[in-house]
Design goal:
The chain contains 12 helices and 6 strands. It is α/β, with parallel strands linked by helices. Strands 3-2-1-4-5-6 form a 6-stranded mixed beta sheet, sandwiched between helices.
Length: about 280
């Protein structure tokens, strides 16, 4: 077994599960291979769980509880971890993104972080009350390297295209960047039109991200005020996959989506020109 230091058990419930699994294994004098036989997994998988790279799921937790007669402790820990806020959500999400084959994103209010320009990201963070946004801007831009490795599908609401962030110039350049990224062969961008025909639809009240990889299956991520939640339970992840499919059914085809993005970009260009003209001629009404 790898002897890497266990995650800080105070970091999150998932980190505590990783720490406690290793503690229980060592207490019983078992190897990683022996634990793998209990949970129907490889020695490497057990090592990744203990190191906080992968997460213990419900079925494997139940097998541990049965074999070690814990009274259901592991199952309860996994349940609490899966429904709670994870303070380490960003680090975990970034790890999964770096190993992803497919990433699917829905954003109802803002441009997705993987498509943001530096100036848009900075203005968004400052507007949200971030006193020092630069480390977060740098991290966000670095995460965009996944666009060169994974297939990425992004659903954006029309509201996200039109909500003013920063300035007309920042918005114009941001939407131009979305159009540029959408030309990549491994990136697909769809827009959900803001019309009464579309109406209220599933997901309108919050974004969702689904990340799929060869070595970890699929996880879902939902964002909340001040944090986020990573979901690894196959049943819950399947529910979010269904939600994403229902949202995507409301989206425009690629070419019409690009037309709508272009139209929104042109509107910000006109606003920018009018603003410049007003500044040059402040006395004119």
């Amino acid at each position: 077994m790898a002897t890497n230091e266990s995650p800080d058990p105070k970091g999150s419930m998932w980190a505590f599960i990783a720490y406690y699994l290793r503690f229980c294994r060592n207490q019983r004098g078992l190897s990683g291979e022996a634990v793998g036989r209990i949970v129907n997994a490889s020695k490497a998988t057990v090592s990744r769980i203990e190191n906080g790279i992968d997460r213990l799921d419900g079925p494997r937790a139940a097998l541990l509880d049965k074999a070690w007669e814990t009274g259901g402790v592991f199952s309860l820990l996994v349940w609490y971890a899966s429904i709670g806020h994870d303070p380490q959500w960003l680090a975990q999400l970034s790890t999964f993104e770096q190993r992803a084959r497919i990433i699917r994103i829905f954003e109802p209010l803002v441009i997705s972080g993987l498509l943001q320009t530096e100036e848009y990201a900075r203005a968004l963070l400052i507007g949200g009350g971030m006193p020092d946004p630069e480390p977060f801007v740098t991290e966000r831009i670095e995460r965009q390297g996944v666009l060169d490795r994974a297939f990425v599908m992004v659903l954006l609401s029309e509201a996200a295209l039109r909500w003013p962030v920063g300035s007309p110039r920042i918005m114009r350049e941001q939407l131009a960047h979305v159009l540029e990224v959408a030309e990549h062969p491994n990136v697909v961008v769809h827009v959900i039109p803001q019309t009464f025909e579309t109406g209220a639809y599933p997901g309108l009240d919050g974004g969702v991200k689904l990340v799929t990889g060869d070595d970890f299956g699929e996880v879902a991520y939902t964002e909340s005020l001040g944090g986020g939640r990573l979901i690894s339970s196959p049943v819950e992840v399947a529910d979010y996959a269904i939600l994403f499919a229902r949202i995507s059914a409301k989206a425009l085809p690629e070419h019409r989506s690009k037309d709508l993005i272009t139209k929104a970009m042109e509107a910000f260009s006109e606003h920018d020109m009018a603003q410049e003209q007003s500044q040059r001629n402040p006395g004119r009404k």
